[in-house]
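Revision sheet: structure tokens.
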Amino acid sequence: MTLRSLAILALAATGLTALPAAAQTTYPKNDYAKPEAWLCWPGKAGDACAIDLSTTVVKADGSSSVEAFKADPKAPIDCFYVYPTVSNDPGVVSDMTANAEELNVVKQQLARFGSKCRIFAPIYRQFTLTALRGMVEGKPMPGATDPAARQVGYDDVLSAWNHYLATENKGRGVVLIGHSQGSGVLQRLIPAEVDGKPIQKQLVSALILGSNLPVTKGGDTGQFKSIPLCKTVDQIGCAISYVTFRDTVPPPANTRFGKVANPDMEAACVNPAALLGRKELHAYLSNGMEIASASATPPTWVKDKPNPKTPFVSVPGLITGGCVSKNGFNYLEARVNADPADPRTDTISGDVTGPGGVVAQDWGLHLIDANIAMGDLVELVGRQAKAYAAKK
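Predicted:
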């Protein structure tokens, strides 16, 4: 992904909302009773989450094995997901047709949770990459300053959430998952519709990834007043949030991630691996795709061997991580434990690069916020599901 594309994606994640007043367009309400309004819905024909998630596990000595994946149709809890800015539709607001970019992002960030929860992922009319590109370049598209163009996506997700609650929830526990713009939507929806409301008792956890979730300094609540950050592996009704940077490329002063505007608050950082008692991050890395692109160049996983054919690769022991506070920023610091003496790769993909391949330090590893700890997140949700069942 190019520097410009990621700049656009990051602006969406951090809420580019200071727009001039303009006449508001009226958008018709979506009907989420229609199966085609959902990317993922249990039993739906063409469910975007019913896909191949097989993974080649590459060990430090270069040996490998294939790990199969199987969803659990009888999972005891649900997951409700809001995807990041990915639409390349030509207008200011995306349509309700799932294109390659929407299908790809659920493959990268969501479908693996199907081993622990039933998955619900609505399509929503998000502010597109196309329109955001114009804003970044100082050439706003007609309608880009219309406040309704920023509101319609939230209204869609709210309608989808209410339809899910009315027709499918039936008292089940639910995990809310978002990334980037999707996390921004959840950071509006949770305070308005969950925090302090009756449904809060069914909240298993909230995964607010790739976004700055404000909490009081040294505390565990803030924007979510009665939903604390997760502190233990079996805690429920709590939130996990982090943004990711390499240990060798920390956030510079101009970064948009790891810091919040309110001086009395800080960006939350919860390391899911640490909750499980380990430093190693259980990553499921893409073998050739990114969240907003159908293709990317993966590293050579093992020297002098052809790359595997599975859509994902896991590299046990290669990546460790921990939440750090440095220079006023809070973030998940990822370390690649390179060993030039063994045949396995000494690097991972995920940086944003500009002209000449120069790394854009201010975006960190935003592209793989979800992938870099996907195994930990899935395992943690499974533990939380058991804790929720025991409490219930």
